[in-house]
Amino acid sequence: MIDQSSYSDSIDDGQYEAKIGEKLKNNQYQIIKWLGDGTFSKVWLVKDLINLHYYALKIQSSQYSDAAIEEIDVLKILIQNENSPQWLNIQQNNIGIKQETHCVKMIDSFVHIVDDTLHHCVVMEILGPTLLDLIRFYEKKNTSINIKLGREITRQILIGLIYVHDVCQIIHTDIKPENIMIELNEIQLKQLINEDETDNRKKIVKRNSIKNGDIFIWKENVIININTDLKFKLVDFGNACQTDQQFEEIQTKEYKSPESIIQAIYSTNTDIWSLACVVFEILTNNYLFKPEGDSEEEEMDDLLAMMIELIGPPTQSFLTKGKRSSQYFESNGQLKRIQDLQKVVLSSTLVEDYEFLEDEAKKLEEFILFALKWDPLERPSSQIMFMHPWIQQ
C-alpha cells in the first residue's frame, strides 16, 4: 500500500495534490503529513476532527476511478464479514478462537471533487512498514528473518487468506511482501503522530542507543521491535476480484502462478502459489523465481523453465486448459524455446546457499512444494496449508 519513495517522484497524472492542513469531507479529515504512494494513489496521515483519531487516507488518481470503486467494494465486503457465523465457525473449529482477520480495515470512504474531477478517497487504519522493508532491513545486516518469525508471519498471512478466500469469496491476486504490512501498536502510533505534530525539533531515535534485540526504525522515530508478537496484515486490494470474476492479467511476475501465465481459469489458491514464493523470500532475502528476459514472453519462458526445474513438468491435462499454452509449450508438453533444464533440489539449495540445517531445510521444502502444484485443482486451499505440520509445529 505504501512505499518510501520521495514526494517529488510520486507525482502522477490525475493525482490530487493535497496540502498540509487542508480539510476534506466537510472539514472532517485534516491532512497532517504525506506518508507515501500507493500504486495509483497518494497516502496521507490525517486527523479525524470529529472523533480525534488518526488514520491513513488514500486519495486515488482520477484516472483510476473504476479501480478505486472496485477496491472500495472489496474493502466493504471485508468489513461486513468480520462477525459472520461462517468466520466464527472457522475460528472455533479450524484456526483458533478470536483470531483477527489480518486484513487492513477501511474506516470510511468518500469522493473529493475538485474542478468537476472526482477523486475517490479511502480512510484506513494506519499501518507501519511492509514485509519488504523488513526483508531489506535484514539484508543490510547480512542475515535474514529467522525461521520462528518466518513461520509466524506465514501463519498470520494464511489466516488472512482463509478469511479472504473462504469467508469473503475474494481472491487477492497480488500477494507479495509489499502488500503485507506490520500493524502499529499504541506506542508506535504515538511515535509517528508526535513526530508529525512537532513543529520545532523532531525527536530522532539514535540507532546506537538501542542495545537489545533487532530494532527497526521506521519514519525516523517509530521503533519496531522485531519479534513474534508483531501483527501482519494483507493490504492493497486494488487488484482483488471476487471468486466469480476472472481478470486477464493478475499477479506480479516473481509471484505469478502457472495458470495466470497460460491464462487458464484461476481460483483462490492462485494466492497460495504466490504465498509459497513469499515464504522462501522472507527466509532467504531472495526470490524463489526471478525471471529474466528482454520481453514479457522471454520472461515467462524463463519463469516456466525455473518452475519445471523445481517441481517437474506440467501435465497435458493442465496445459489444455490454458488459452496461451501454445505460446510457450509444444504439443508434447516441452517448452518451445528452452530445452537445457537442470533439476533443482530446494532443500539442497537452502543448505548450501543459505546455511539452513538439513532438517529445517527439508521441512521448509516440503511446505513450499506442497503449495507449488501446477494445476489449481491439485493445489491446497489456505485452510489446508494452515494445517500443514510446518505451520503447526
TrEMBL record:
SMART domains: S_TKc (SM00220). ATP binds at residue 58. PANTHER family: PROTEIN KINASE DOMAIN-CONTAINING PROTEIN-RELATED. Its EC number is 2.7.11.1. The keyword Nucleotide-binding applies. Residues 29-391 form the Protein kinase domain. One of its GO terms (molecular function) is protein serine/threonine kinase activity. It comes from the Eukaryota. The keyword ATP-binding applies. It is an enzyme of class 2 (transferase). GO terms for biological process: regulation of mRNA processing; spliceosomal complex assembly. This is non-specific serine/threonine protein kinase. Keywords: ATP-binding, Kinase, Nucleotide-binding, Serine/threonine-protein kinase, Transferase. It catalyses: L-seryl-[protein] + ATP = O-phospho-L-seryl-[protein] + ADP + H(+); L-threonyl-[protein] + ATP = O-phospho-L-threonyl-[protein] + ADP + H(+). Belongs to the protein kinase superfamily.
